[in-house]
Design brief:
Helices cover about 35% and strands about 20% of the residues. With about 400 residues, it is an alpha/beta fold. A hairpin with a 2-residue loop joins strand 13 and strand 14. Helix 2 packs parallel to helix 12, helix 9 runs parallel beside helix 10 and helix 12 packs across helix 13. The longest helix is centred in the N-terminal third of the chain and has 20 residues. It is elongated, with a radius of gyration of 20 Å. It starts with about 20 loop residues before the first helix and ends with a strand. The relative contact order is 0.17. Belongs to the leucine-binding protein family.
């Protein structure tokens, strides 16, 4: 994601706003299975925002991993081994994320990690987990540099062979939004704003490049600070250029008030953003004038997928206090990708640490039909699926506009 801060990929249209702590929200039986004397334990960590503004998304990630692990234990998916979930709260901030990764890396029983939500957080987590050969699978990071390096546009090079993701990237999401605005919505003039974080800056960058390539004009390009709440200055700077839409790189806590203040100032054009704003809280913050605002998100709406029906049913049956939210399906698939690799790496392993490298190696061969579609990874650790969806606010709710696979031109 969703700096998300990355984005900081299936989406549920209902996201709860309850913010519980990791221990308070953890649902009873996430390990399941039997615990005979010869059974060994392997732990799967979760690094996500389990408190704060983005906790609804983070708790959906946590519970979806818990569900995958419970089902694996109940079916004895890895004979002789019991899996356990260890959730860590990163608060959607890099330093707490690094601390969470350090704690998990110091545990000899940790075999893999699902997370993070935010790109900026993963930038700190990757170099902690990689030296320990701990596989990391993000359900929500969309920053291209995480898998293809700082020069991903001209000289892609994989920085960490331990890192994978089940969602597509902003190298796809930004251009996807640009094509929708220019080709479908027939909007030829836009203004852009981003929050200076890795997710927002990257998203606006790929959007801008594609929009100009198509023939569109970026009539103004502005930035805000991550802790700003009053956007009158940036709105005043943009308004004279008469954009037909504003494309925003960042997340809903700022995007919602920005949209509201735009409309109040007479800039009555749609605000569009990436998966970082695709949340019911955005509409709450943006208010009644948010109708016709737009967002893209990775994948198809989970509740519309035939492949997701069992996941949705099983999740609801567990009685978790929070819904699976925007990244539940991708988190469930991420956990099951690790579990699929563990079926190979733990088969004859004497302990977890000796199986870590084999787990990383096995991840590159993982391929199965998941909740969100085909789950497999390319040479960079990126998902091979490039399906995205455009959503529009209509009557106070996010409504699906179109879902399609992105194709290079």
């Amino acid at each position: 994601m969703h700096q998300r801060s990355v984005v900081r990929v299936g989406a549920s249209l209902i996201v709860a706003s309850l913010a519980l702590t990791a221990c308070g929200s953890r649902s009873g039986n996430d390990s399941g299975g039997s615990s005979g004397g010869s059974t060994k334990t392997a732990k799967i960590g979760v690094i996500a925002p389990l408190s704060g503004d983005l906790s609804a998304l983070g708790l959906g990630i946590q519970h979806s991993v818990e569900l995958a692990v419970k089902q694996a234990n109940d079916s004895n998916a890895i004979p002789g081994w019991k899996l356990e979930v260890v959730p860590k709260d990163d608060e959607a901030k890099p330093d707490p994320g690094k601390n969470a990764a350090t704690a998990l890396a110091g545990d000899a029983d940790v075999i893999g990690v699902v997370g993070t939500l935010n790109t900026s957080v993963s930038q700190q987590v990757q170099p902690v987990l990689a030296p320990k050969n701990i596989v990391q699978v993000s359900p929500a990071n969309t920053g291209p540099g995480l898998t293809q390096g700082a020069n991903w546009q001209t000289a892609p090079q994989r920085p960490y062979k331990t890192y994978f993701r089940t969602c597509t990237t902003d190298a796809v999401q930004g251009p996807f939004a640009a094509r929708y605005l220019y080709e479908t919505a027939k909007i030829t003039k836009v203004a852009t704003i981003h929050d200076k974080k890795a997710y927002g800056q990257g998203l606006v960058g790929t959007f801008t490049e594609e929009f100009k390539k198509l023939g569109g004009q970026v009539v103004a390009a502005q930035t805000i600070n991550p802790d700003d709440s009053n956007y009158q200055a940036v709105i005043s700077a943009i308004k004279p250029s008469a954009p037909q839409a504003v494309y925003y790189g960042g997340e809903y806590p700022q995007a919602g008030p920005l949209s509201q203040q735009m409309k109040a100032a007479g800039l009555n054009v749609p605000l569009m953003g990436g998966d970082g704003i695709f949340d019911p809280k955005y509409i709450t913050l943006a208010g009644k004038t948010s109708d016709n605002d737009l967002a893209t998100s990775v994948g198809a709406p989970v509740d519309s997928l035939e492949s997701a029906k069992k996941f949705v049913s099983d999740y609801n049956a567990q009685g978790y206090k929070e819904p699976y939210a925007a990244y539940g399906g991708y988190s469930f698939d991420a956990a099951n990708a690790i579990i699929a690799a563990l079926k190979t790496s733990l088969k004859d392993a004497k302990d977890v640490e000796s199986a870590r490298q084999a787990t990383v190696d096995a991840m590159s061969k993982v391929s199965f039909d998941g909740v969100t579609g085909k789950v497999s990874f390319d040479q960079y650790g990126d998902t091979t699926s490039k399906v995205l969806t455009v959503y529009k606010v209509a009557g106070g709710k996010w409504a699906t506009v179109e879902t399609k696979a992105f194709e290079d031109k």
